[in-house]
Amino acid sequence: AQKITQTQPGMFVQEKEAVTLDCTYDTSDPSYGLFWYKQPSSGEMIFLIYQGSYDQQNATEGRYSLNFQKARKSANLVISASQLGDSAMYFCAKNGADRGSTLGRLYFGRGTQLTVWP
Amino acid sequence: DARVTQTPRHKVTEMGQEVTMRCQPILGHNTVFWYRQTMMQGLELLAYFRNRAPLDDSGMPKDRFSAEMPDATLATLKIQPSEPRDSAVYFCASGPYATGDGYTFGSGTRLTVV
């Protein structure tokens, strides 16, 4: 099984500050994708950002950026200018190789609960 | 925005009863997943389909769970008979064949078996 590790069960950040959520992974796949999802208290899973393993540049999406270090097998999520609405559980995920497809099943970490305080 | 639609949103049932959860994937998405989320186990893959064909259902208790895609617009997950340990949130997700756009999750079905 492929292991996704999120070492921070909980993180706290003050509004308007930046925060980094850590994610490391195990893989021997030659090609893969890394994903971050947000799960607010309402329960839905919201896709935030994607990084392909062969992408030369780190992915960015608005206030979200992904600090991808392939050799270290890490894909940390950086949220800039935190907002109260960013308080949620954040999951890192990686897709597995699947019969030549780059879109196999997702393996999830256990998540990091982010709390943004005023 | 296109959505993955799951029904019902909530289900409370008695142990031993049959439970059927339904999912309508986004039109054009050919990969459909069923995940289960619990506090203890986190997000676990139960089964997934590509072009309606089952690719992996190794995460599913075969004696009581079954997953099908009778057509491209409907995926079902059935539990028979249900047990209290099946209480969880069940998510359906869909995605296109090769993309960096991520998978889209439904709102989930919160199942409580008493």
Strand content of chain B: over 45%
Biggest interface between chains: A-B, 23 and 26 residues
Q: What's the shape of chain A?
A: globular
Helix content range of chain A: under 10%
Give a quick precis of the structure.
The complex is a heterodimer of chains A (118) and B (114). Chain A is mostly beta strands.
What does this structure look like?
The complex is a heterodimer of chains A (118) and B (114). By secondary structure, chain A is mostly beta strands. Chain A has no helices and 12 strands. Chain A has strands spanning 4-5, 10-14, 19-21, 24-25, 33-39, 46-52, 60-61, 64-69, 74-79, 88-95, 106-108, 112-117. The relative contact order of chain A is 0.33. The model of chain A has no long low-confidence stretch (mean pLDDT 92). Helix content of chain B is 0%, strand content 54%. Chain B is built from no helices and 11 strands. The model of chain B has no long low-confidence stretch (mean pLDDT 93). Chain B has 114 residues and is mainly β. In chain B, the strands form 2 sheets. In chain B, strands 2, 4, 5, 6, 9, 10 and 11 form a 7-stranded mixed β-sheet that branches. In chain B, a hairpin with a 2-residue loop joins strand 7 (65-71) and strand 8 (74-79). Chain B has strands at residues 5-7, 10-13, 19-24, 31-38, 42-50, 53-56, 65-71, 74-79, 88-95, 104-105, 109-113. The N and C termini of chain B lie far apart (36 Å).
Protein traits:
heterodimer, A: 118 residues, six-stranded mixed sheet, 0% helix, B: 114 residues, mainly beta, seven-stranded mixed sheet, 54% strand
Secondary-structure blueprint:
The complex is a heterodimer of chains A (118) and B (114).
Chain A lengths: L3 E2 L4 E5 L4 E3 L2 E2 L7 E7 L6 E7 L7 E2 L2 E6 L4 E6 L8 E8 L10 E3 L3 E6 L1
Parallel strand pairs in A: 2-12
Antiparallel strand pairs in A: 1-4, 3-9, 5-6, 5-10, 7-8, 8-9, 10-11, 10-12
Chain B lengths: L4 E3 L2 E4 L5 E6 L6 E8 L3 E9 L2 E4 L8 E7 L2 E6 L8 E8 L8 E2 L3 E5 L1
Parallel strand pairs in B: 2-11
Antiparallel strand pairs in B: 1-3, 3-8, 4-5, 4-9, 5-6, 7-8, 9-10, 9-11
